[in-house]
Amino acid sequence: MRSPSLLSLLSLITSSLASPSSPAPNLHSRDATTNLNLSLPQHPLSINLKPQQTSTRDLVSLDGLWSFAIDNTTNSTATPWTSPLPKGLECPVPASYNDIFIDRNIHDHVGWAYYQRTVAIPRGWSGQRYFVRLEAATHHGRVYVNDDLVAEHVGGYTPFEADVTDRVNPGESFRLTIGVNNELTHETIPPGTVEVSEYTGRKVQTYLHDFYNYAGLARSVWLYSVPVEQYIEDITVVPDVDWDEDAETGIVHYTVDTSNGTGSIEITIADEEGNTVTTASGANGTITIPSVHLWQPGSAYLYTFTARILSTSTDPPRVVDTYTLPLGIRTIAIKDAQILLNNAPIYLTGFGKHEDSPIRGKGHDTAYLVHDFELLHWIGANSFRTSHYPYAEEVMEYADRHGILVIDETPAVGLAYSIGGGVSSADSPSTFTPEGINNNTRAAHAQALRELVARDKNHPSVIMWSVANEPASDEEGARAYFEPLATLARELDPAGRPITFANLGQATYATDTISDLFDVLCLNRYFGWYSFTGDLDSAGIALKEELTGWSETYPGKPIIISEYGADTLAGLHSVMGLIWSEEFQIEYLDVYHGVFDTFDNVVGEHVWNFADFQTKEGIQRVDGNKKGVFTRERRPKGAAYALKKRWSGLNNTGLGTE
């Protein structure tokens, strides 16, 4: 069977986004916004609720060792495997495959790779529907049941699934093969370029983002069941608070979507002790919780929201399906250049992070998850940005339970041809062109945004959506590209969270063309490193001038310094504070913090980066980006102790949250 190519699939998505009554906007015209269809019509999602084990659902983990092989052909349509993979290689799931094997051909592979195992459908699943669900496949995934392609998805960081009910009977086994393609083009998110070497005939991948393009099944794979009669497909909860003088009342607007409308819906909300505090009936409605316990950073009170489908054909009614969600009651708002969490100003302390660790690459690891959050708590951080892609949903759930605030970002990084690996290029081509970042790219970007919000809309830890990281927002075509996406982001989230993007340093307050579309200014600035290198006196002056310009241009918008930092080699010391030394990193941060403290509208500081991380090979990096305040193995540099002292002081003075 011949499967659609990546380009044709993206073209299909593009056609579904285009308005039937108006032409596609011209992205390389600065005046192209006049005839835009700003609504970007909804494209169907292949995302449902995260699988869970309940009294009506079963869940089987498919994590572990899978047979593995790479496809060395340059055929972009990739013939499916219709027989067992060659013996020899086994690859762990979840994990990126690049660093697992001692094989440069696998490490550098560009194209399709295949995972395979035998899966048995439990005999007890008669009368159930059952699905194979992938939490992520970087960046293009295909699912085969025996010889047949049953599901396909483009986008490396959000889940998709295949309904296999009609292909395999309970008690039977099948060959499950998953194809994963890591190729990036100018029409994918993130973008890149694939060329074939004239010398070796091998594909070579280039890209503009400064982190390694790890590939494979980096997150879990599941087999799960739901009742065939009727099941809960989705739940949306929107918390609010009535700020009464005596005791706050929690408000929960909810919607429950089901596979059909035959049963009745019952809602229960329980407190952390398991006591029922309120109930309701119906597929949508509003519930109040008197004397509510608010979800706060560092004090993450979670209620349990339970939805049940009841069959009224029996007496008493029979439970057909049930699903539970953690529920945090909190509000988030922007007012007077401040971020208000539960009606009080909040100052964000924390980092840009990466899903990155030795050997596993971007593979989700629960030990690293817990240890990283312990380090966030130790250092006094109350927040992080999911730079530069959605993280595993287990990370979001852990943030919910432990009171860490999250700026949730799409995979839209590398939308500026003027930079590559963090280094500017003066003679680079224009970004927004038919041959570059174009309408098809934006279609993929819109779909990535839809899937991010659909997955993470119920997490109380998520306080903001970041639409992109460091796009060329000063270039012609940027506004035509981003205005529909900003509108879409507001339409997608029923909770109305603020939206932002991380601004590129060369897109100053005088040249940026899109910041008025967003609620919060997130600025990535590297004075003293990429410019004024080593000259911290000049860096401080330049930073203050920049923040003054943004404050005067956008007086009502809060500012978060979403990236600032300097590469630092752990163990390198200098009595003169020379660059790359631990002393320089500390002095660099001190200069920035001194400037931040003079601006009331600077409401957050996210150091780049939490930990050192791997990047593509090149003469600009030696074994990765070294801007972490922890090493890649999570050992602290001197700057970690300096940040701990500062952030503890900010929290103690009420600017942060205990």
UniProtKB/TrEMBL annotation:
ATP-binding recorded as keyword: no
Biological process (GO), any one: carbohydrate metabolic process
UniProt KW keywords: Glycosidase, Hydrolase, Signal
Glycoside hydrolase family 2 immunoglobulin-like beta-sandwich domain span: 231-330
Entry superkingdom: Eukaryota
Glycosyl hydrolases family 2 sugar binding domain mapped to chain residues: 60-227
Pfam families recorded: Glyco_hydro_2, Glyco_hydro_2_C, Glyco_hydro_2_N
Class of the enzyme per the UniProt entry, highest EC level: hydrolase
UniProt entry tagged with the keyword Hydrolase: yes
UniProt cross-references to InterPro entries, sorted A to Z: Beta-gal/glucu_dom_sf (IPR036156), Galactose-bd-like_sf (IPR008979), GH (IPR017853), Glyco_hydro_2 (IPR006101), Glyco_hydro_2_AS (IPR023232), Glyco_hydro_2_cat (IPR006103), Glyco_hydro_2_CS (IPR023230), Glyco_hydro_2_N (IPR006104)
Enzyme Commission code: 3.2.1.31
Signal sequence, start to end: 1-18
Domain Glycoside hydrolase family 2 catalytic, chain residue ranges per copy: 332-651
Sample GO molecular function, one term: beta-glucuronidase activity
Assigned protein family: Belongs to the glycosyl hydrolase 2 family.
Protein name: Beta-glucuronidase
Organism: Aspergillus mulundensis
Upper classification of the organism: Eukaryota, Fungi, Dikarya, Ascomycota, Pezizomycotina
